[in-house]
């Protein structure tokens, strides 16, 4: 807080200090002023004070320092700075070397933006982040009128209440999540000065086919490498126009979430012979079927393609087979085919691919049709030695498929395996899975929504190879007290941060056993909702002083007053940010005790979580 900042500010011996990072603390104006009074740090280049409690007064004091003439980076995002503070910063004349100014998430309006835009000293400014303020069109127009920042590469104005009229000229333009429509695009494309524009981000606006076509027709942006038009209202006409472009050297194209883009326009994109350097193509959440997937699979130009996202479309086995047959994408690292209509035939074809030696991430989740047979070639694939993430959730995989996956010893870099919500995996499959000793880097294992019980818990807890495991999902299974006690006996998951055990049959004995674990000292999120935990279990949890809890979910259990009083007496969960107890039997005295806890009383939640509604 302020006292700590004052102590640091009073230091006169760090004459060579280059970086001061104090973000995510509780520093207010007094602390900021103490830092600003320091005249020793003449070489200071980086000052990070984001996510504190600094208001206009503190910002004015920081700007008044005349010693920090070598400052390159100033971070003041997510404070409480308004126009007075922004105006003071904008009037600064002592930071001639400033390269990065981040002041996002404050209370700055067009007045403060105009003051910052008027600065003529920061001739080396490369990045300005003012997103999540209230700049509106006047603020954006003022920024666009600046002629001093000739080297500006990034102007970040996301979520700034900018509409069609507030368009600015820069090298990297980020205008995501605004209200820009075709009218704004019409104005934008008339600008002929953006000859060096490389990145244009316009996701989450109101752009239709017309706007997309206007963007494509612009003849000035010949160096454009990144075009993001996700979550707009673009259909086949607009996507066809974009796909027909012959001027851009695109490295990334994002048309995800438009919902209307279908096979015909995807075929045009797939046949583009100019974008030889395309590395990322995102077409998630559209209306692409097998026809469009076949066209993509036949592409022979994108030799640099690294990421292809086709999640949430309507692609079936034919399309999956066509994509699997592609031998051009030898650099492919990520392939998203989740939430489509792919079955065993398509899965077998994908698993047989031997060209994707760089593949790191494969998503086949929620296709609902892939069963054990479809995993045969995937499980046996020895080409994907770099595979880090394999998502197979929401299919029909059972024990045979799980055992096949567990038998793969090539994926030594595997970080995440998702087999959740297959509903068919039992102890027989998980016991073999738990015996895998090759995945020494495994960080996330998701097994929720299956039929595993005590035997699985015992096998998993006995695994000593997964010392890097951070996330374990076991919700919605058949785990009782004995299973919880088996899990609690684990001594090797010293990196565990998240443990999900909701929708099981865990009672007081199981909760007490979990609370007694001595290895999970990094545990931050514990999910125990929808179980049978009462006062005894709650009391045992309250006495745990080892878990570094940030989120604790105990809703829909059987906790009463005495359990609540025990929880309220805890003084070690100082980092707790979420504590939900909805649906228990806690009376007024218990609630009052919880709400007066000095560390987490203000975040105790007795309401139904949003995702349960």
Description:
The protein is α/β, with parallel strands linked by helices and 613 residues long. Helices cover 29% and strands 11% of the residues. It has 22 helices and 23 strands. It has a 23-stranded parallel sheet, with no helix packed on it. Helix 1 packs parallel to helix 2, helix 3 runs parallel beside helix 4 (83-90) and helix 21 packs parallel to helix 22. The longest helix has 9 residues, at 56-64. The mean pLDDT is 94.
Question: What key attributes describe this structure?
Answer:
alpha/beta
Short characterization:
The protein is α/β, with parallel strands linked by helices and 613 residues long. Helix 18 packs parallel to helix 19 and helix 21 packs parallel to helix 22. The mean pLDDT is 94.
Please count the helical segments.
Answer: 22
- Using the alpha-carbon principal axes, give the shape: globular
Main sheet record? 23 strands, parallel
The number of E-state strands comes to: 23
Averaged pLDDT: 94
The unreliable regions are none
Radius of gyration, Cα only, in angstroms? 28 Å
> What's the N-to-C terminus distance?
38 Å
**Helix/sheet category:** alpha/beta
Roughly how much helix do the residues carry, as a percent range?
25-40%
β-strand amount: 5-15%
């Amino acid at each position: 807080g302020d006292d700590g900042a004052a102590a640091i500010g009073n230091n006169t011996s760090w004459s060579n200090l280059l970086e001061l990072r104090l973000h995510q603390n509780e520093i207010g104006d007094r602390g900021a002023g103490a830092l600003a009074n320091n005249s020793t740090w003449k070489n200071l280049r980086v000052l990070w004070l984001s996510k504190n409690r600094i208001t206009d007064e503190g910002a004015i004091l920081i700007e008044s320092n005349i010693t920090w003439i070598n400052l390159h980076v100033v971070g003041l995002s997510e404070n409480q700075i308004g126009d007075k503070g922004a105006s003071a910063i904008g009037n600064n004349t002592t930071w001639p070397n400033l390269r990065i100014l981040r002041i996002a998430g404050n209370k700055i309006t067009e007045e403060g933006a105009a003051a910052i835009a008027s600065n003529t000293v920061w001739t080396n400014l490369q990045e300005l982040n003012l997103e999540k303020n209230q700049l509106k069109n006047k603020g954006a127009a003022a920024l666009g009128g600046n002629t001093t920042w000739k080297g500006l590469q990034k102007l970040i104005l996301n979520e700034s209440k900018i509409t069609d009229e507030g368009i600015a000229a820069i090298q990297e333009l980020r205008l995501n999540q605004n209200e820009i429509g075709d009218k704004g695009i019409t104005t934008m494309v008339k600008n002929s000065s953006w000859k060096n524009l490389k990145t244009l981000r316009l996701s989450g606006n109101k752009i239709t086919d017309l706007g997309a076509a206007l963007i494509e027709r612009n003849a000035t942006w010949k160096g454009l490498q990144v075009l993001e038009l996700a979550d707009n209202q673009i259909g086949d006409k607009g996507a066809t126009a974009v796909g027909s472009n012959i001027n851009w050297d695109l490295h990334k194209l994002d048309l995800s979430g438009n919902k209307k883009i279908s096979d015909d326009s995807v075929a045009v994109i797939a046949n583009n012979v100019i974008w030889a350097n395309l590395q990322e193509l995102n077409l998630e959440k559209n209306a692409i079927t097998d026809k469009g997937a076949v066209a993509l699979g036949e592409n022979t130009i994108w030799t640099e393609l690294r990421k292809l996202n086709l999640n949430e479309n309507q692609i079936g086995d034919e399309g999956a087979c066509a994509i699997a047959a592609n031998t051009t994408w030898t650099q492919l690292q990520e392939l998203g085919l989740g939430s489509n209509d792919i079955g065993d035939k398509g899965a077998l074809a994908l698993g047989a691919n031997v060209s994707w030696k760089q593949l790191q991430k494969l998503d086949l989740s929620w296709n609902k049709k892939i069963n054990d047979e479809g995993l045969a070639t995937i499980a046996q694939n020895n080409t994907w030695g770099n595979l880090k993430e394999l998502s197979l959730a929401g299919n029909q995989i059972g024990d045979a498929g799980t055992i096949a996956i567990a038998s793969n010893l090539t994926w030594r870099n595997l970080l995440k395996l998702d087999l959740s919500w297959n509903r068919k995996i039992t102890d027989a499959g998980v016991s073999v899975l738990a015996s895998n000793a090759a995945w020494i880097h495994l960080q996330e294992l998701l097994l929720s929504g299956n039929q595993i019980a005590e035997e699985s818990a015992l096998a998993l807890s006995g695994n000593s190879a997964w010392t890097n495991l951070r996330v374990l999902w076991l919700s919605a299974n058949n785990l009782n007290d004995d299973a919880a006690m088996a899990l609690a006996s684990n001594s090797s998951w010293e990196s565990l941060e998240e443990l999900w055990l909701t929708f099981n049959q865990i009672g007081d004995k199981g909760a007490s056993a979990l609370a007694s674990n001595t290895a999970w000292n990094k545990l931050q999120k514990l999910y125990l909702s929808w179980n049978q935990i009462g006062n005894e279990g709650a009391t045992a949890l309250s006495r745990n002083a080892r878990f570094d809890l940030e989120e604790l979910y105990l809703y829909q259990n059987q906790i009463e007053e005495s359990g609540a009083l025990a929880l309220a007496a805890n003084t070690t969960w100082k980092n707790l940010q979420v504590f939900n107890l909805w649906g228990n039997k806690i009376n007024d005295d218990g609630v009052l005790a919880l709400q007066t806890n000095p560390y987490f009383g203000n975040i105790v939640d007795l309401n139904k979580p949003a995702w349960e509604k």
